[in-house]
């Protein structure tokens, strides 16, 4: 009998029984008050009079009236660059030990502060995720198995007074001592910066591990599994890790990868989605009967919601100064919002770059629908990444293919705009037939797109290419592995450079 595993499972059940979900409005007000109180003597807190906000009759309204919305560029230019220069007490008390180098898709170079308080919240949010496993009916021996966390290198970049790396690497470098016995691939392999070398080492060591769960971005986890299977001459990953039961995904939508991912398995896994960003651990899936994520409301992050509309965003995807901004209490289900966060890392009314939709307000559950800068609206298409992902799932079924990556742009052809798509798939098909059906699906799903097609959007083209070309581009122009994500929407000049690159690959 798995005595330790049974003990852990019972402890989780007891903890879940004696704790309850917080009241959303009360939890968020408390978080904001704590944030303001702790930061009131920082340079930021003094400028925006946090002490006065705390003493006001309506703390949230006063906060929203006093503090402007920030995107990364504004936060960095006005405040965070001082942290990199060694200053303290800028937007959060104390100095700065870590900076997360963003591997997102909206900027090539973000340095985001990660405070000790933020590391504490990430650990606490991770425990909330563990406690929610009681809802997934896992056997006791699962809790004795090892956990493969495929993230960025834990070998951080040493600067004068701080260290830099991706958030997954910083988090892994700070895992509790008790967890290291469960953690794979271990610090030594996780410190390898070269992706191919790291994955080959994992494949070599894999027979000696008893992996019960995986975590990481789908595209890179899939590539790792393929290498382990190929190197060890297996049929499926369960031939070497028979106790593998859970995959914790995040970073991008998993559904486009499910079909190809499950070909590597002898049986489906329990899939659990998470929302961990360079700015914090925002949400986690707590129930097996939904793919939505529950916002973590009582752990150092205050959430705000901006209705995703032309009235509230400028042409660069930034929130306008006079935009409507709602608290969670006032936000509505099935409406797309730009997410703002204020955090224990000293981000204030910070536009994280994601769009979300509340799917279950009583449970504070959301779906991530896209990126504010990955919203295609050059000639009125108004296509979100959420709609693109839904269309790609239909394309997979109609053409019996696997679509793992895609990118689109509005480009000029013969003086008029068309939408050009590159589709990363496992086999080639008729590009014109694909483009015609994709166009039809998007017209059915989005009335604005349909109107654009009758006016300013004069055509749709698609080119289906081997998905490896996307990864080779990522390796050369971004970097391969870890938490790196492929953009879904590009500006015309970037897209034409991408097109030239992939066209030159054999």
TrEMBL record:
Residue span, GH3 C-terminal domain: 387-492
This entry carries the following GO cellular component terms, namely: cytoplasm
User: Where do the GH3 middle domain residues begin and end?
Assistant: 295-361
What positions belong to coiled-coil segments? none
Molecular function GO terms recorded: acid-amino acid ligase activity
Q: Which PANTHER family match?
A: GH3 DOMAIN-CONTAINING PROTEIN (PTHR31901:SF9)
| Name the record gives this protein | GH3 auxin-responsive promoter
The organism encoding this protein is Larkinella knui
